[in-house]
Amino acid sequence: MAAARLVVLVSGSGTNLQALLDAIAADPDGFGAQIVAVGADRAGIAGLERAERAGVPTFVCRVQDFATRDEWDAALAEATAAYEPDLVVSAGFMKIVGKEFLARFGGRFVNTHPALLPSFPGAHGVRDALAYGVRVTGCTVHFVDDGVDTGPIIAQGVVEVRDEDYADGGDALHERIKEVERRLLVDVVGRLARNGYRIEGRKVIIP
Ligand code: GRF
Predict the structure, then answer these.
(1) pLDDT digit string, tens, across residues 153-183
(2) Do the Cβ atoms of 1 and 81 come closer than 8 Å?
(3) Closest Cα to atom 4 of ligand 1
(4) What is the Å distance from ligand 1's center to 10 Cα?
(5) CB of 132 closer than 8 Å to CB of 122
(6) pLDDT digit string (tens) for 51-64?
(7) Could you tell me which of 105, 112, 130 has the C-alpha nearest to residue 120?
(8) CATH class assigned to 112-207
(9) Rounded distance between C-alpha atoms, residue 124 and residue 132, angstroms
(10) CA 44 to CA 121: how far, in whole Å?
(11) 34 C-alpha to center of ligand 1: Å?
């Protein structure tokens, strides 16, 4: 079976992207997927450099270059569609996509979030969990729907909160979450690509 084509979207350091690149490079025939392009909502980020180092084509689609958010969304959808992906992975992509993007990639657009959804959605999942005083948190890999971090959950990983996490603002906790998150994302993307999947209501079934 041909490897599933992935477009990965990033906004920052791209360590989740790197984990995918490394897993594919370690087992190019067995992993079941290839990254055909990396897209970003900003230039000059480490995530794009990681893609370039790996010889993967990149594109940048900046909100401020468009008159409206809908035009940006349509351009992002078009740039992504040009690479004919089977799956799109948001790996630290810090933008909410719009109607056009979801119309084209709904049901095959995967996001990773650094909290145990449905708790603490949004851009500050780690900080919000700490502020609430939870003793366990973690990460969630899920399909994207038209809400903010509300789509069907594929897999979750758990991370314990330590007393010292309350003192340092969450940076160390986020690093521990990201270690779990990278392994989870690689595992999920590989299984989706190799086994296929179906979404039944809120349940994701990977045979
Ligand atoms: C991840 O924790 C992701 O869930 C969050 O931002 C982080 C991205 O990290 N939204 P990286 O860019 O993959 O290193």
Answers:
(1) 999 999 999 999 988 889 999 999 999 999 9
(2) no
(3) 113
(4) 8
(5) no
(6) 999 999 999 999 99
(7) 130
(8) alpha beta
(9) 12
(10) 27
(11) 20
Active-site residue flag, 142: no
The parts of the chain modelled with pLDDT lower than 70 are: none
CB 47 within 8 A of CB 10: yes
Choice from 41, 116, 142, 181 to test ligand 1 binding pocket (greatest atom count within 8 A of CB): 181
Half-sphere exposure of 151 (CA within 13 A, CB side): 22
For the domain made up of 1-105, give the CATH fold.
Answer: Rossmann fold (3.40.50)
The residue whose CA has the least distance to atom 3 of ligand 1 is 92
* The pair of three-digit structure tokens given for residue 106, joined into one six-digit string: 């709904």
- Distance between CA atoms of 140 and 161, rounded to whole angstroms? 16
Cis ω for the linkage preceding 152 (within 30 of 0): no
This prediction's pTM: 0.97
Q: Where in the chain is the domain with CATH 3.40.50.170?
A: 1-105, 112-207
From 15, 20, 95, 124, mutation site for ligand 1 pocket: most ligand atoms within 8 A of C-beta: 15
Measured distance CA(196)–CA(206) in Å, rounded: 6
Pocket of ligand 1 (CB under 6 A): 10, 12-16, 47, 91-92, 112-114, 178, 181
